[in-house]
Design brief:
There is one protein chain. This protein is α/β, with parallel strands linked by helices. The protein has 2 domains: 250 residues, HUPs (Rossmann fold); 97 residues, Tyrosyl-Transfer RNA Synthetase (Orthogonal Bundle), CATH 1.10.240.10. Helices cover 51% and strands 10% of the residues. Strand 8, helix 13 and strand 9 form a beta-alpha-beta unit. The radius of gyration is 21 Å and the shape is globular. The structure holds tryptophanyl-5'AMP (TYM). Tryptophanyl-5'AMP (TYM) binds next to strand 5, helix 6 and strand 8.
Length: 376
Amino acid sequence: MVDEKENEMVVTPWEVRGRVDYERLIREFGTQPLTEELRQRIARYTGRLHLQLRRKLFFSHRDLDVILDLYEKGIKFVLYTGRGPSGTVHIGHLVPWIFTKHLQDKFKTRLYFQMTDDEKFVVEDELKLEETKNFAYENALDLIALGFEPENTSIIFDVKDIALLYDIALEVAKRITYSTARATFGFQDSTNIGWIFWPAIQAVPCFLHAKLTGENVPALIPAAIDQDPYWRVTRDIALKLGYYKPAQIHCRFLPGLGKGGKMSASEPETSIFTMDPPEVVKQKIWNAFTGGRATVEEQRKLGGDPNICTIFQYFAYLFEEDDKKLAERERQCRAGEILCGKCKTELTERINKFLAEHQKKREKARNIIEKFYIKR
Ligand code: TYM
């Protein structure tokens, strides 16, 4: 019997549960689908589309068309994204960051990256402030390891940089009523008041560039769709404060290695963390849920189902750049010509190669992290 409660879709900035129906999210959140026409408009500036766009990992947006209209008129935009440092980074978090780097390279824009050590302290009962501050530092190393440059990337550590953020946060907070915040975020009587104020702080980097440079330009936010509620309230008040409404480009969730659900740090067995050693990665992938059949004979005869296979999705979204090779893997799987063991072994090799490089770059980032600290 299907457990209705367990299957029920919940997508909030703090919880993602059940089978995620992305079409339904577009309708319920009131975002726009990322159309072929819009993808082609992006390609005019980026050349060949990034694989996360080609394979429709990024699937929805708000005002991306407006951002491109303005860009065509000579008004640039800044990029903004972030991380809630409640633990170590997993490869799902890297998805929007890799895409952000691509946009930054192609459009030559500044990135503001917010490390929300304050958010994770107020939201997570068991975390101490020193811990979230420390995770913020450690998680920033993962960001830098992806190749961002200090010249056009500013990392905001909320607790350290609060003096920079506070005046704008107050302007934002004053214009959002409790009833809007409760309806948007589902606050309860038991929710602590730090958490209730918190969305005002996540809004600030949308507007920070104007304060720092005097240039009033819009922000474009690449992130998974779970962060969208923040932008709904921020967009409502942006014009009142004299700023552009922030625009978004939303991605799907990289799934965990289990059956259903996004990759999430709360399920470490089915998540691959950037600091995982090779044997651990191998073990996790070996236990992964695939689209394979119960026996080798059945698989040879009936073929597998890449649509439901976590391993195939990791190839598609991160680890197979070549469209032809991906299509061939899919064909072989469906035809029963390739077994799950082979895909698992190949994926393990690719992930471990990527992580070995990433971990080296991450260590080197310790020497340059201060260059990324936001300057006033
Ligand atoms: P956090 O730490 O929950 O997530 C960081 C970023 O990773 C995305 N994400 C995923 N993307 C693909 N697959 C997954 N399985 C997956 N899990 C998480 C999130 O959407 C996010 O983009 N409150 C925020 C921090 C923040 C922020 C921002 C995020 C502050 N300002 C601006 C995005 C944009 C948070 O806790 O993110």
